Amino acid sequence: MNKIKWGIMGPGVIAHSFVKGLQALPDATIFAVGARSMEKAAAFAQLYDIPNVYGSYEEMLKNSEVDIVYIATPHTLHKECTLMCLKAGKAVLCEKPFTINAQEAEEVIDYAKKAKLFLMEAMWTRFLPSIVKVRELLKKEVIGQIRQVKADFGFCCAWEPENRLLNWRMGGGALLDVGIYTISLASMILGVQPDKIQSMAHLGETGVDEQFMAVLGYGDGKMASLSGAIRTDTPQDAWIIGTKGYIQIPDFWHAASVILCLKDKPVENIQLPYEATGYGYEAAEAIRCLRQGKLESDIMPLQESLAIMQTMDSMRKQWGLAYYKCNDEK
Length: 330
Known about the structure:
alpha/beta; Rossmann fold; six-stranded parallel sheet; globular
């Protein structure tokens, strides 16, 4: 079986983690890298022995042997880069957040479907062994009927006002960087989208959401309590609470264990370490879909990525936060 040839678009920090994860897959090869400059691309290629190096994204996409492109550019370029790849006939695995807002997400999804090309949001957490185990436990209703989901993801970044994290023009703030992990987790667990959203955020000196909290309500009485921060350290844990007990996921966004707590039973700590950086699992899912001729993943479907963007748009509207002055729904 021929190896799937990957192109890397945007050799930044996250791309290093992805490529190290990709190296653990026997049926994948890191075939090409494209950057805004040949210097950046060459430096990245040298680290990982990548044979095809390009000083522009467009040049890399002209290589007919590239099967799929992993997009690791800044948030605000995700739509542009995804469409660029799709128009070149390439399958795409785009780093989260899928786009900057729901309008952009809808645009790239529509194009991919019309072009009949594979497209997936790279929500790597969803494919980790620990989270796969969580889905198995929930399917078996081990903790009974789910009633609540709680998750937080916060860290304290350095005070650098021009940095991407603190720049609203670049999609900065807690929501798109870390909050999306909590919202995507709730979406995966509850299986439907909220019909009520109540949230608040602290917009800091640079105009981005330095921290937020949200309560999502569902028609059957289930609730999700979620928070995110980029100027406050938090435990970064998640809890799924049911009628028979609960599941705790320590460090849920890169979890290596699951704690099962059932009524009148000993606590069970299930250790499920991931290989390499953990980013290989989402790549393996993309490869599986490509080999089966699928245009999207049933674990991270396109409609769900769109719905998650719609939820985040609704939250930002409550805060009065827009990323683009002329291309956003403030």
